[in-house]
Design brief:
It comes from Anisodus tanguticus. Pfam families: CRAL_TRIO (PF00650). With 270 residues, the chain is an alpha/beta fold. Helix content is 45%, strand content 10%. The radius of gyration is 19 Å and the shape is globular.
Length: 270
């Protein structure tokens, strides 16, 4: 992305790569901060228990879901039990209808996989798996199959996460993207699945090789991105691509197309 385009994004949407261009210096927590953290954790744990009782009463299938999943939905709704419960019950209903067999099979998404646009390889410095999506390879086709591809990918990414991790990092590569790739309906469907059905799973999204014409699509999508997700999006200038990614990813874990050492692996082969 050129510096001109970066400034346009910052002016239009109110955020950019960083607040001050510098790394923040961590400070040791005081005893008071530690006590407050313990209290917050206890409050959150209590709310998880309350929410579990509520959702299990309305949908017994919730008993098969672990506390971490319930906690993610709570966090997505700022620990509002009522809102989080509503969101969670909608997710359970969606899952039964859209993924009745428990998972999406590659045989259900042959056309989407044939475009070879989604890959997974490596981890960032804190162990979050890395997913790479090539927007210039996406075509407007069957939106239901595209939604199944998104679900298939998110399920696979989540299943590959280390035990201590809950989030993943994504790189959205828009090299070669043009109006033929602009699929607002598909993008919004994917966004809805990510935000409503996999909350608190996205750790960070780098958008790279951004063409100016993408602004048109971005303006249509932006109002539907929730506050928490917006904070995780970073538009990267072309000349700062490798250095920006290296702040989060070591070279031996960085995809080779961005100057690292790992070859990309198609999502279906992971």
């Amino acid at each position: 992305m050129s510096s001109y385009l970066r400034k346009k994004f910052q002016h239009t949407f109110g955020y950019g790569e960083s607040q001050n261009g510098k790394d923040e210096i961590p400070y040791a927590e005081s005893d008071a901060e530690t006590d407050a953290s313990d209290t917050d954790e206890q409050i959150e744990s209590n709310k998880v228990g309350i929410m579990r009782a509520l959702v299990e009463k309305q949908d017994p299938s919730a008993k098969g879901m672990d506390d971490q999943m319930i906690r993610r939905f709570l966090r997505a709704r700022d620990l509002d039990i009522e809102k989080a419960s509503t969101m969670f019950l909608k997710f359970l209903s969606w899952r039964k209808d859209f993924v009745p067999n428990g998972s999406v099979s590659p045989s259900e998404i042959p056309n989407e996989l044939a475009h070879n646009k989604l890959f997974m390889q490596g981890q960032d410095k804190i162990g979050r798996p890395i997913v790479v999506a090539f927007g210039g390879r996406h075509k407007q086709v069957n939106v239901d199959e595209f939604k199944r591809l998104v679900t298939y990918t998110l399920d696979k990414v989540c299943s590959r996460m280390p035990n201590e991790q809950e989030k993943f990092v994504a790189i959205g590569d828009l090299e070669g993207w043009g109006y033929a790739n602009s699929d607002i309906r598909g993008y919004l469907a994917a966004l809805s699945i990510l935000q409503d059905c996999y909350p608190e799973r996205l750790g960070k999204l780098f958008i790279v090789h951004v063409p100016y014409i993408f602004m048109t699509a971005w303006k249509a999508i932006y109002p539907f991105i929730d506050r928490k997700t917006k904070k995780k999006i970073i538009f990267v200038e072309n000349k700062k691509l490798r250095s920006t990614l290296q702040r989060d990813v070591d070279d031996d874990q960085l995809p080779d197309i961005y100057g690292g050492k790992l070859p990309l692996v198609p999502i279906q082969d992971c």
